[in-house]
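Thanks for the sequence, V.! I ran Phage head morphogenesis domain-containing protein right away. Repeating your input here for the record:
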Amino acid sequence: MNNRDYWIKRALMQEQKTKEKSEKFLNDLQKQYNTAFMEIETDIQNWYKKYAKENNISILEAKKILSEKETKDYILDIETSIAMIKDEDLKLYLRKKYFQERITRLQSLKNQTAMELEILRQSQDISTFEHLKNVYMDNLTVDPAITVSSAFHRFSRVAVENAVLTNWSGDTFSNRIWKHSNKLIDECQNVITTGIIQGHSIDTMSKKLSKRMDSNFANAKRIVRTESNYILSRATFENYETMGVEQYEFLATLDYKTSEICRELDKKVFYVKDKQVGVNCNPMHPNCRSTTIPYFSDMQGSRATRGVDGKTYSVDRNMSYRDWYNSLSEEEKKQMEILAKMDKNKVKDKEQYEKIKGVLGKNAPKNLEEFQKVKYTDNNRWGLFKSYKKSIEIGEISPLASFNLYENVSKEIDEKLIGISTVNGINVVGRSNHFVSRVIGSTEERRNGIDIDKIFDALTNKETNILELKKFKNGTSQKFRYNGVEVSVNPTTGNLIQTNPTERK
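Predicted structure:
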């Protein structure tokens, strides 16, 4: 069957099925991480209840050797956790490592934390293996419509294990899990030691531990997604060999997320015998989404592309990634760049968004997607948003004032005041961010500042009281007073500096 549409559809269905299976597995793995974190939090809280006075403990107290009774309690806690493990070898390993005598109070807590992470690591290792095994077996099938030249591959245990445990990237997935886990254990133990030495609260330590576990889970996601793509690729090529396929075509996804190397390889044809993972076959890099299809010289059909609007379209089968990209309008290319930047900076932006939520509360963008739209789609709006956040932080405006209000007031100032001339001939060409805040006001009301029309009158009315010009280190200022309003302008730059009521309400 030489229809290209068929092969692309089949490859994309396999890729999508594998992706869905991987995301479901990652959701389950996230629950394991959450459980481990809650166990660690409980261990810390119980430890503080036992040894701390008013949630404080000196390093000397923390380094005291456990009493005979405390040692028995510690061993009982360790044994309770170990009893939940099915793997006998792991039980033996953990008992040997953590059943210790003459142990300090601090070391007992660090050991309990480490053991929770050891259990998580073992569970992650086993469940990842099972997931990859299922991906391999799901995709190691030949379509019944294809006439095969040899017998179907048999699902032998050895063959499956060899596929899943192959060291294709310089290290097995299992070794990478263990390396990341060892690093996590060290980091979490350091957080606990530093926290106790510096007198951090339980809440502070919990936040630091949570951040490190989030980072480790991000590594786990990358491993699962990349290994899943490799296993799918391996099963696909074993199918090619079974079917007698001699050549394959590299197929990149036509959207903004695609890496530069996959863009360059898109639509290139290689011999199956020359296949090299990371050179001319997926995965080309961590989180790779590319795939391959069989190549026949007389293939016909089209291929799919995902537009910047998120919809899927069909394009000519001979169109490569570069051809497709060059066919886009300048506006579409600009949108592609923005979407790519959003995707690349997602992790850092999430951290920034969480901090902003801590400052703005309900006035923060409703989700990460909305925040990224503000940040990347309009430089002027992003600058305004940063000014708004700063004004809230330093108390220039009320926390009740929304960004929508700040934006509207700024727009009204620009429309009504920028471009006018004062009564004494100063051309107003700009305004400070502080000026916007002063127009809104700073008490616990949503807005109690100065009416913009009154500011206009103060600047332009012939009866305005113009005060003497004052010079400061950072510039000059002239004040205009009229009808209960005072406005400061820099006559050199033409910028509105600030405004205040001359009569308190």
